[in-house]
Design a protein that fits this description.
The complex is a heterodimer of chains A (about 325) and B (about 70).
Chain A lengths: L3 E4 L2 E2 L2 E2 L2 H12 L6 E6 L1 H10 L6 E6 L8 H11 L5 E5 L2 H13 L3 E6 L1 E6 L2 E8 L4 E8 L4 E5 L15 E4 L31 E5 L9 H11 L2 E4 L1 H5 L20 E5 L5 H4 L7 E5 L7 H4 L2 E3 L3 H20 L1
Parallel strand pairs in A: 1-4, 1-6, 4-5, 5-12, 6-11, 7-11, 13-14, 13-15, 15-16, 16-17
Antiparallel strand pairs in A: 2-3, 8-9, 9-10
Chain B lengths: L1 H7 L25 E7 L8 E2 L4 H14 L5
The chains are: A alpha/beta (about 325), B alpha+beta (about 70).
């Protein structure tokens, strides 16, 4: 079995949740594997991110370079091809950054590219069998990948639950000297902070999140009533914003906001990877959807097949009832 | 409309792999490193614990779970 690496995304010294998920994916691929984390960056942020993943990886390779202070996939790709041994398997989170990094990395490493993997079905010789979703998640497919010359695999966020177990004491190996000077055709200019909306959904512990299943703007009030009763906020997936039923500041996902609530009620949300990419911190995810085949049920903790337009008002009434009993 | 009519009779060339200077053995199904084996319908809620009770029972259960997870202020 080839050596397995996991590229770790981090920001301001905080490792992305996908760090532990990629370790779990590597173990599913090869239970005997001891995956190595790849961390690129600069200064205190890199050190902090390194400390944050010590529990998940036995070995961490760091590449410290001022040019990598901002995660420019073009530069990181150039750095990785200098240190990753030929024939390796590199796991990357299937998020906007991973989608930027991974395809070109596989070309440069002359290895197989496999995107948006939800599960590992097994390994047979030099063939890796994975599960991917097709047709908007309505059907899944077993896909066989020739990994004899290595592979770059992007893994859907949330698809692999972090492993529980004894923390490992990581060995940190500094690979910076193997990389040398880095230049790229694109460069970081500035970060544009998104405008704050009426409600900051990133600050709430409970989110009642609605998707296309809410059907029309008038029905948004059903979710708002529930959120109000629960002391939560209403968030949404992209179709709701596209339809202008809620503002952009309420959108969760790769093109919206990243949230870390304790509880996330996904109401009428199919569960695209773009939406799930905005969900961090492993919240308790309750999915309500009338489509029993909705992909959200593959990653939720609890699922209910029901019509949200009927289920949510009943839940709201029950919460109010409970509140009034508690107030007496 | 006139533009559509004008291009309707223009021949569209069809190129083969060899016309493009590509090794036929390096492309197509035979050379693909990633191949779909089969399609299947995923098990319902493989990842989720599916609540199978009546709506009222499910509402109660959701409320209980949300409260247990610290989701009710």
């Amino acid at each position: 079995m080839a050596r397995i690496f996991a590229y770790i995304v981090h920001k301001a010294g905080v490792a992305d949740d996908s760090a532990a998920q990629l370790a779990a994916a590597a173990k599913k691929m090869d239970p005997a594997a001891s995956p190595t984390a790849l961390l690129t960056g600069w200064g205190a942020d890199l050190s902090a991110a390194c400390d944050a993943i010590r529990d998940s990886y036995a070995e961490i390779w760091t590449i410290s370079n001022e040019a990598l202070a901002y995660p420019n996939a073009e530069l990181i790709r150039k750095a990785l091809i200098k240190v990753v041994p030929p024939g390796s398997i590199v796991l990357v989170a299937h998020e906007h950054f991973g989608i930027d990094l991974a395809p070109g990395l596989s070309i440069k490493l002359n290895s197989t590219f496999v995107s948006d993997v939800l599960d590992i079905a097994g390994i047979d010789g030099s063939d890796l069998k994975v599960v991917r979703q097709e047709f908007g998640g309505q059907v899944s497919a077993h896909v066989r990948c020739d990994i004899s010359s290595g592979a770059v695999v992007t893994v859907r966020p949330g698809a692999f639950k972090p492993l529980e177990g004894t923390p490992v004491a990581a060995t940190v190996v500094d690979k910076s000297s193997e990389v040398g000077a880095l230049t790229a055709g694109r460069r970081y200019l500035e970060t544009i902070v998104a405008e704050a909306g009426d409600v900051d959904i990133t600050k709430h512990n409970v989110l009642v999140s609605i998707g296309r299943g809410i059907q029309k703007q008038e029905n948004v009030a059903i979710a708002q009533e529930l959120a109000e009763a629960m002391g939560a906020a209403v968030s949404c997936s992209r179709p709701v914003v596209d339809a202008k039923w809620l503002g952009k500041s309420r959108q969760v996902g790769s093109s919206g906001k990243t949230v870390k609530p304790k509880v996330y009620l996904a109401c009428g949300i199919s569960g695209s990877f773009q939406h799930l990419a905005g969900l961090k911190g492993s919240p308790f995810l309750i999915a309500i959807n009338k489509n029993p085949r909705a992909p959200i049920f593959q990653v939720a903790d609890v699922g209910i097949v029901d019509d949200i337009l009927e289920f949510l008002p009943e839940l709201t009434n029950k919460v109010r009832e409970m509140r009034s009993v508690a107030a007496k | 409309m006139r533009g559509i009519r004008a291009v309707a009779s223009v021949p569209i060339p069809t190129f083969g792999v060899s016309d493009l200077g590509i090794d036929p053995g390096a492309v197509g199904q035979a050379a693909a490193k990633v191949k779909r084996v089969d399609y299947f319908v995923p098990a319902l809620g493989k990842g989720a614990e599916m609540l199978k009770g009546s709506r009222e029972e499910n509402v109660d259960k959701v409320l209980e779970l949300v409260a247990a997870k610290g989701g009710l202020k």
